[in-house]
Design a protein that fits this description.
The chain has 153 residues and is α+β, with helices and mostly antiparallel strands. The chain contains four helices and ten strands, in the order βαβαβαβββββαββ.
């Protein structure tokens, strides 16, 4: 499977050495990197690159520690027909909950995953794969911190 694997690096931020070691272990991959001041803008840049290439997209933020097998697992799930899959990681401000949420009424609440594949209402994009089918359907610049579809936050 050919995927655009992209890392997002904030301005004036460097990768932790453990993250650098993860990228070195991947070896022989085609990846795209973008560094800018806002996360949603950076995501839109690499999203548009994957869209232009007509490829699946795997986001791996610069602070994510991963193994090559975890990346292959994301790719395999896309190959099995999943549209969007995320690896489990904790949010930067808490080690208690992973970046997974379930929808309750009009809110998202943190959830703990079960073993295996879980259906979630929302997830962090720091270690996430999106199929090229979904990328082609999402339109221009879908990453926006202020709206969710037609809902303004």
């Amino acid at each position: 499977m050919t995927s655009t694997i992209a890392t997002i690096v904030s301005n004036n931020y460097s990768m932790p050495f453990d993250a650098v070691k993860c990228w070195i272990q991947l070896g022989g991959i085609d990846f795209f990197s973008y560094s800018g001041s806002t996360l949603h803008y950076n995501r839109n840049i690499v999203y548009n690159e994957a869209r232009k290439r007509n490829q699946d997209l795997i986001f791996i933020d610069s602070d994510i520690i991963f193994t090559p097998q975890q990346v292959r697992t994301l790719e395999n799930h896309l190959g099995e027909g999943k549209d969007i899959v995320t690896g489990v990681y904790t949010l930067f401000d808490t080690n208690d909950f992973p970046a997974l949420f379930r929808r309750v009424a009009d809110e998202y609440v943190p959830m703990k995953p079960e073993e295996g594949v879980n259906v979630v209402g929302a997830c962090g994009m720091g270690f996430c794969a999106i199929s090229k089918k979904v990328i082609q359907e999402m339109g221009d610049e879908p990453f926006n911190p202020f709206t969710e579809g037609k809902v303004q936050h």
